[in-house]
Amino acid sequence: MSVAAAAPGLWDWSSNLPLLLAIGLAALYRIGDRRTFTPAAAQSAQRFRRFCFYAALAVLAVALSSPIDALSQQLFWAHMVQHVLLLVVAPPLLVLARPWLRLWRSLPLAARRSLARSLALSSRTAGLRWTWRTLGRPAPSFVLFSGVLLGWHVPVLFDATLRSSALHVLEHTLFFSTAMMFWKQVIDSPPLHASLGSPQRVAYVVGAMIVSWALAVVLAVAPHPLYDVYAHEASRPGGISAIADQQLAAGIMWVPASISFVIVIFVYVHRWLTPPSVRATPSRLAGEH
Predict the structure, then answer these.
(1) Alpha-carbon distance 75 to 249, whole Å?
(2) Where are the domains of the chain?
(3) 138: Cβ–Cβ under 8 A, 6 or more apart, which residues?
(4) pTM score over 0.90
(5) Could you say which of 10, 19, 51, 220 has the lowest number of CB atoms within 10 Å?
(6) How far apart (Å, rounded) are the C-alpha atoms in residues 145 and 269?
């Protein structure tokens, strides 16, 4: 029986780099938003996307700077909450927000011209362009998303992240970056465009959901704690056992983590089955300037 340990308080937030980056991105987006004209017909859609952007930043702050981050050192289920927020909550919100034009316009004009020229033409960025073209396609994005999710939950790697802050940062960075690549394939986010049709997007998301379920099942049915750091924790907030902690983490990966997948599946099944002649024309921001 585990001895209950003190849990972090609700106001035990960290003024760390992720929080500062979130605040900085919010400021840049605000500047770019003020510099971008949105037609009256697109105002409602833009308000929704603005909400999605700030919500994504708030989710990232909760995952990486709130008491959840401190609690994740003691409880596996809290660590899994972090992973769910970084994989299937913040990234789809950010892709849905389509913030790229506004973030770009937050930069000075001279900086934009220089950066655009460098990214498009410079030999120094040729490798970056090749990487984007190669890994940014649907199949590599799916493999990377699934591989990163499963790979970092292999016990030897997972335990290493709990002992090394550098590895922990790398783990979270890969979770978020590969999730962005994944969700970009199923949610249009101009000027980024998904190449998959509605049936392919449904299959794509179902496949990723099955991968997450497989991880949840392994965690749920394991007869003993898989991660030494949590198994040997002297005390845990709430006094739960290591195996109960692991099973709770499995439940979080199984049910809450599936919500984003299920929403996207329903949206594209509906689009797939709706005749083109009766589909509503989506509002566009193409008229922004």
Answers:
(1) 9
(2) 12-108+129-275
(3) 185, 195, 196, 200, 204
(4) no
(5) 10
(6) 22
